[in-house]
Fold this protein.
Amino acid sequence: MGWTFPYTTPTRESLVQHLRRPERFGEKFELVRTCASGSHHWYLIRERATGLHWIGLDLLQGSRGAGWGYKDLDETVGPCAVDCPLAYLDAPHAEREGWAAQWRERVREYHAKKSARPALVPGARLRMRDGREYTLAESLGRRGWRVLDGFGATWRMPARVARSAELVPAP
């Protein structure tokens, strides 16, 4: 299972377009949906004869001089990523047990935990893995948060770091 670097994909966008070509899957299969986020390109395929679906994941990677490439996986060979869109799981699929069924359950658990997490709001307290605590002062949009540490110093915290921290309950 190696990586494929097509010579026609110098950018991430050109690679995603290359991966979405209908002829990639042949005449027996139909590309139903796709979603690209970060280094993941998720897709839902329907087998025309049976009407059953399967989910695939292309891991995307850029390389200096070689452009952009991918490693393709499907749900039966064990993608470890669980950020697959939930809507893909609702399509009729063949594998009711085994690795694909276990993986689908982990995807559902991931989304349940993600939606159960309270929204970050100014004034909320965050505890990092190392025990340090910060107070959210102001949202900076995509750039993250302006936070205050216990000594009154102001810092910028990336959004992904703030989302991964533990919310400290209000006293």
Summary: The radius of gyration is 20 Å. The CA atoms of residues 83 and 105 lie 12 Å apart.
